[in-house]
Amino acid sequence: MSDAPSTVFVLAAGLGTRMRPVTDTLPKPLVAVAGKALLDHALDRAAEAGLTEAVVNVHWLADQIEGHLARRSGAPRITVSDERAALLETGGGVRKALPLLGEAPFVVMNSDSFWLEGPEPNLSRLIARWDGARMDALLLVAPTTTSLGYEGAGDFVMDADGRLERRGERKVAPFIYAGVAILKPALFTDAPEGSFSLNRLFDRAIAAGRLCGMRLDGQWLHVGTPEAIRAAEERVQASTRTPLNQGSIRPTPATEIASCRKPKDGSPS
Q: Residues 43-76: pLDDT tens digits?
């Protein structure tokens, strides 16, 4: 697809407060899971999906992250977006980096987004699913019930066309945001300066009927606390003995991998 992204923005500036005391002296993106820093898991998956450019933002213990990035080799080529002066949250961090990201749609990844793959790599699937004519944002979402280490009520419901809506008054929603999305730069038009959450822009896309989701094929692992690191390590080890498509996490049928399509009444999406 002509507007398929080639750049990824990796959010690596957070304080990692729930991971303390580990993150008192080590930034969360450099915490190792399965023998590799979380940040490297994200960047390596970006490279495997064909993304050639990466922008990584830094704030907390920024020197450590910059030093780690300098020791990497190969794709993607990395540029740092420096937020030492002020932590800008997810939306503000992306907005600040827009001049580095270019005019084409781009991928955004939380540096702690971690999952076990199904038969096909999820980031490649997400990029293949992107359709800028129908979407302002495409989110990778994971089933609430099968995600390891997650105890919340979920974030989104998804209709048959792949459009996402907030949980609202529902007690439980079937999907959670897995920390990976494809966004159009135009989504940031009139976005505020300073600190704000990407959720503000997700809500804008929902209002326009242009926030879409794709279900993760595999298992999402929420690596938010020191205890969750151990749980994730154990699940990774178990997956090497029992592949996901042979165990309790079934591959996602094609009918469940929705994408935004033209509304049934024929009106523009």
A: 999 999 999 999 999 999 999 999 999 999 999 9
Backbone angles phi, psi at 159, to 5 degrees: -85, 180
pLDDT digits (tens, 9 = 90+) for 165-199: 999 877 789 999 999 999 999 999 999 989 999 99
* Residue from 252, 223, 253, 37 nearest 147 by CA: 223
The answer to whether the beta carbons of residues 54 and 131 sit under 8 Å apart is: no
As averages over each run of 10 residues, the pLDDT of the chain (269 residues) reads 87 90 92 91 96 98 98 96 96 97 96 91 97 96 89 92 90 93 96 95 97 96 79 78 46 45 44
pLDDT attached to residue 198: 97
Q: What is the per-residue DSSP string for the chain? A: -TT---EEEEE-----GGGTTGGGTS-GGG-EETTEEHHHHHHHHHHHTT--EEEEEE-TTHHHHHHHHHT--SSSEEEEEE-TT---HHHHHHHHHHHHH-SS-EEEEETT--EEE-SS-HHHHHHHH--TTT-SEEEEEEEGGG-BT--S--SEEE-TT-BEEE-TT-S--SEEEEEEEEE-GGGGTTPPSSS--THHHHHHHHHTT-EEEEE-SEEEB---SHHHHHHHHHHHHHHHHS-GGGSSSPPPPGGGS------TT----
Burial of 238 (0-12, 13-18, 19+ CB in 10 A): exposed
Question: C-alpha distances in angstroms, 74 versus 47, 54, 68, 223?
Answer: 9, 12, 14, 26
